[in-house]
Each structure stands twice: as C-alpha cells, then as structure tokens.
Request: fold
Amino acid sequence: MNGFLLTHDDTSTAFAIILHNVRTYRSGGVVAVVHGKRNAESTLKDFQESQSPSDHHAGWRYFLEKSDLAAGTDPAEATHRRQADLERREAKESQNDPVRPSNFGK
Reply:
C-alpha cells in the first residue's frame, strides 16, 4: 500500500502551533490551533515558509504541540489558557518534589 495510515488520534486531535525563540527561550505564544496532524503539519510549514529571514536569524521557530483546545481558538486566548495550564502543572510538580532540608548543599 502506498502512503500511510493515520490513526484516529492523528485525525481527531487538535494541535497548537507555537512560536518560540531558541536563542532567548522567549515564547511568542500560540499562533494557531488546528485540527488533525496533517493539517497542523501543513499549517506549520506555511508559517515557516512565510517567516522573514531576519526573524529566523533572530532565533524564532515554530513547533507543534498536542492540545485540548478547540481548533480555531483565538491565538491570544489559546496562549493565555496554555500558560495557565503550564503554571498549574509546574505548581503540581513542585508540590510532588520532596522538601529539601535547610542545610542542603552546605
């Protein structure tokens, strides 16, 4: 068989396309939320091809991330919700870390 099969997950999952600076580690936020892996990869490629050479040289890159956001979510709202989710996960992880003794590292 030519081509490849997509799993149900690949066709039904939403993906956030995120702008990130690989030099400064600064996030440019979510630029789009799209439905399906093929569509996400195609949209990602469109963003990459339309990026200015100066932005690319400055370190700005796009990447995909599976998301529970609805496809078409406003990028500003998606960025806000993604950041809130990241902060919740970090807070939960910090609660799960063992407490270090006060003399740690001395």
